[in-house]
Amino acid sequence: MSQLLSPEDEAAAKILLVEDDEGLGGLLLEEIEDLGHDARRVATAEDALDLISEWLPDVVVSDLRLPGADGLALLGETRRRLPGRSPDFLVITGFGSVRKAVETLKAGAEDFLTKPVDLEHFQLSLRRILEKRAMREQIGRFQAASISGESFHGILGRSPAMVSMFQQIRLLAKANGPALVTGESGTGKELVARAIHRESNAAGEPFIAVNCAGIPENLLESEFFGHAAGAFTGAGKARRGIFAEASGGTLFLDEISEMPPALQAKLLRVLQDGRVRPVGSNREEQVDVRIVAATNRDVESEVRDGSFREDLFYRLETFSLRVPPLREREGDIPLLIAAFVSEFAAAANKTIRGVRADALARMERHHYPGNVRELRNAVERAIAFCQGREILPEHLPPRITKRRSAVHPHDLPGALALGIDDDSLPPLEEIERRYIRHVVDKVGGNKRLAASILGIARRTLYRRLD
Questions:
Q1: Helical H segments across 21-97, by residue range
Q2: pLDDT score recorded for residue 6
Q3: pLDDT in tens, 191-228
Q4: CATH number of 7-144
Q5: Where would you tag: which of 164, 258, 346, 444 has the fewest CB atoms within 10 A of its CB?
Q6: May I ask the CATH architecture of the domain 152-324?
Q7: Alpha carbons 214 and 253: distance in angstroms, whole number
Q8: Distances in Å between the alpha carbon of 12 and those of 40, 191, 379?
Q9: Residue 92's closest CA among 60, 120, 69, 68?
Q10: Which residue did the predictor score with more confidence, 181 or 305?
Q11: Cα of 166 vs its chain's centroid, Å
């Protein structure tokens, strides 16, 4: 049996087969299941209608000639009963009924095949239908995001982790005190800081972002606090510092862990009394600035080893917010991909509808150590390489197309977690079974998600758990 598609190449779908011929029905049912899909079979249009309303399949594969009502009637009644939610139809007909099949296409079927059914053509047709359906759903999700408010001050997300963070931003923004935003590199900490500013009472005032690692250490104090004329060589005239420029608004200090200890002490003083003294000046200046700091490091560890001031940490940490990594945002990846495809395709003046199903499956499996930034860069690269109307696996970076688990290294169990020690050396098959069970447990028993993470079909997962 030809295998143009492996179960890992395509996400599992619900396929209903309507075929009264036992031989053909059994063959096609086996073929659909071998592709990793959830398949059911009935023999009549009447039975199919009952199951369609209850089960809501993604695709109906139906013979045109059936006992009682035919496949065309089944298509029409399904669309009448489920407007807007109707499954796609792939119809099968004998050579003598091609005209009827064309009539079915005009009525809304996606494709038709003639008997005897070529299994490779069947696989290709089913794949095209599922890809088109996935694309429609992807575009619909992006459009729905714009309508339903899944974009929060430019931050896209609808997962529970992001909805919770949006609520925290709203509450934190009204507190007015300094805030600390933590999270891994690439999670969008500056976007979060901007959202805090826009939700605050100072939304109409300046927002200034500074990367503490991007300013030479010998210029940091002058950049932050300004300087008087003649304060040092090259200071021909007085200059206002960043604190004064941001007065009334928000100053975002990215990578605050890179700030030297001496400057940390001066920052703490500004937070306490709201006054800055320019370099070389004897006069202090009052400023009204809200500080939002960010870091991708473990600041508490840096406090313990003495590289970050404890008093400054506790001053900032009063209002803290953690930005979740992409691996904790189940369901947000397709939403982000759709937004990035739209953005970069427009910038490149290309007509690209979206991402083909197998490419999307690979993108959803990847663990993204670089988080949203890595995903964004991957889509930008794919748009640059794409010459057609949809992104294919070969347009993606090799690190995404490689076969590997989407479990992040932070989540990998040690040898003891899998029940292995020096006195217990189980066979590889048993280790595999334990690891699969571990992943299933980590995702709360969600076998569809576990199969996606492991890069295997659900049927394969069930079989290896037996």
A1: 22-34, 45-55, 71-81
A2: 34
A3: 999 999 999 999 999 999 999 888 887 778 888 888 88
A4: 3.40.50.2300
A5: 444
A6: 3-Layer(aba) Sandwich (3.40)
A7: 11
A8: 13, 35, 24
A9: 60
A10: 181
A11: 16
| Dist. CA 333–CA 331, nearest whole Å | 6
* The CATH homologous superfamily of the domain defined by 409-465: Homeodomain-like (1.10.10.60)
Q: Residue 3 has what pLDDT?
A: 32
For the four alpha carbons of 166, 167, 173 and 176, in that order, the dihedral sign comes to negative
Multiple choice CATH, 327-401, 3.30.200.20, 2.40.10.10, 1.10.8.60, 2.40.50.100: 1.10.8.60
Tokens of 277: 């003294």
First to last CA, the chain: 25
Distances (CA, A) of 354 to 131, 151, 337, 376: 10, 19, 8, 14
Tell me the three state secondary structure of residue 403.
Answer: coil
Q: Are 264 and 309 in contact (CB under 8 A)?
A: yes
What's the one-letter identity of residue 295? T
At residue 406, the pLDDT reads 44
> Which is nearest to 107 in space by CA: 46, 136, 55, 64?
64
Amino acid (one-letter) located at 441: D
Residue 285, both tokens: 């200046």
Q: Which two tokens stand for residue 80?
A: 């009448």
The single residue listed with the structure tokens 């095949």 is 113
